[in-house]
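Morning F.,

Quick status update on the modeling queue. The single chain you submitted on Monday has been processed. Sequence for confirmation:
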Amino acid sequence: MHSLQRAVCTGLVVFWLSAHLSGCALLLVGAAGGATAGTAASVNENREATHSALTYVGTVLVNVVYVPAKVVFAAGGAVASGVSYVATLGRPEPTGKIWTTTTGGDYVMTPSMVEGSEPIHFAGSSGTHPAQVGRRDAEKSGA
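Structure tokens below.
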């Protein structure tokens, strides 16, 4: 199963569980699922990089805390961005900066980030338009 398929399956499981479990249990299941999917995706993307088994275990454990924190931060930013849009009567500048800063950045930690060989971007860059971020990421990956 490819990492994208794992991520989709994880999302479906979390969606189903959200209708049947309390918020706390959902948060724990989502964190563990997101951490596992993120680690699996990073393994597929970095085939040439080798990491110790302990690094992978550490990455999953770090993601159990990091993923929910990032999702809460992004959700809060999305709400704040909407409030900003209404409060400024539709001005896109402050709204866009809030949106890009809070919803941009890394949603999962990779083994390279845990080892310190790759930077961690919890927040996005408020000075960069989302389209430019996508172009920068494509250039970085060689696409």
